[in-house]
């Protein structure tokens, strides 16, 4: 018998709905994750879409200092025939509660509980998986790192992995990560919640925010201009995850990595920042992606931003076209 869930109207408006997923409390109090879906993929309405991915479910996970608001992404997957879900992880976006440290965990494996709770609602839980439906995971930036690690541990549950500028390697390269890791570990043991200097100058926000000349409107409480504060305990967790990628995940699951054609790293604003990745080094990320598994595709999108889905219309459509072409070869059958 199907479980009943109390879906509520979402902040994005119709047809989006959200469902709160209670998780185990931690030392900051009650913890939840939040699952978002489109209501037009439920019941009889679901049969109106007969695209190539009918019979497939997609779960999207956002990046650092972020939450799901990318409606064109949901529309794309729906047009392909898939059921689309997005997960706001604990202490992010819809799941952030008063008194919590935004985005803070000390182990990316903590998100296993968030992911399992979402998959259970979607019908892909351990107890009652829908064998006739396939699962595609899609993650952006930190979400891409998190889902890569999760997929490596559960390859039998994932038909394909799509990564949108995943944070697979530190921006200052593997050597710097190796040097800094012992320092971050020491700081994490002494003062895990210590506040680190901000390195985000706000240029990425300038490139995407409608209030600053970009295209997108979103909640700046959930996605602040210079990002959330970072902490040693969290940074050590990121480095540990990136080290596992560098060692090789050996995933059998096919993976597509979408990246901008170039990065622009500068302490001063440049118009080039509106058509390149100004968060990650895309060359290092492309190399790191090859450590994911045996079947890895890297698609470089000219003019794309760090979140390729938030790029200008032309590169955004090129990114969707790249996914469509890739799915023609690797989509669940």
Automatic annotation (TrEMBL):
Name of the protein in question: Alpha/beta hydrolase
Keywords, sorted A to Z: Hydrolase
GO cellular component, one term: membrane
Family annotation (Gene3D superfamilies): alpha/beta hydrolase (3.40.50.1820)
Any one GO MF annotation of this record: hydrolase activity
Organism encoding this protein: Orlajensenia flava
Limits of the Serine aminopeptidase S33 domain: 58-176
Record InterPro entries: AB_hydrolase_fold (IPR029058), AB_hydrolase_sf (IPR050266), Hydrolase_4 (IPR022742)
UniProt feature coiled coil, ranges: none
């Amino acid at each position: 018998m199907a479980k009943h869930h109390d879906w509520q109207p979402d902040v994005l408006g119709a047809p989006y709905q959200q469902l709160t997923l209670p998780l185990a409390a931690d030392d900051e109090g009650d913890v939840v994750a939040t699952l978002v879906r489109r209501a037009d993929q439920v019941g009889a309405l679901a049969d109106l879409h007969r695209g190539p991915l009918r019979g497939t479910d997609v779960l999207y996970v956002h990046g650092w200092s972020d939450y799901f608001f990318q409606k064109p992404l949901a529309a794309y997957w729906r047009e392909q025939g898939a059921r689309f879900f997005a997960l706001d992880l604990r202490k992010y976006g819809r799941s952030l509660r008063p008194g919590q440290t935004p985005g803070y965990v000390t182990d990316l494996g903590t998100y296993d509980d968030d992911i399992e709770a979402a998959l259970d609602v979607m019908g892909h839980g351990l107890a009652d998986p829908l064998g006739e439906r396939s699962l595609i995971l899609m993650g952006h930036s930190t979400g891409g790192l998190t889902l890569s690690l999760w997929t490596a541990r559960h390859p039998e549950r994932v038909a394909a992995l799509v990564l949108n500028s995943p944070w697979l390697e530190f921006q200052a390269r593997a050597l710097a990560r190796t040097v800094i890791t012992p320092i971050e570990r020491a700081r994490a043991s002494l003062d895990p919640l210590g506040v680190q200097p901000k390195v985000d100058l706000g240029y990425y926000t300038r490139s995407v925010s409608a209030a600053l000349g970009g295209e997108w409107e979103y909640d700046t409480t959930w996605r602040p201009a210079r990002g959330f504060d970072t902490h040693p305990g969290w940074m050590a967790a990121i480095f540990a995850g990136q080290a596992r990628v560098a060692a090789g995940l050996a995933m059998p699951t096919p993976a597509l990595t979408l990246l901008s054609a170039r990065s622009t790293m500068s302490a001063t604003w440049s118009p080039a920042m509106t058509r390149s990745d100004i968060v990650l080094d895309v060359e290092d990320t492309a190399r790191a992606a090859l450590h994911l598994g045996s079947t890895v595709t890297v698609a470089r999108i000219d003019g794309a931003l760090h979140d390729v889905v938030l790029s200008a219309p032309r590169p955004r459509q090129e990114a969707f076209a790249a996914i469509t072409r890739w799915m023609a070869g690797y989509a669940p059958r």
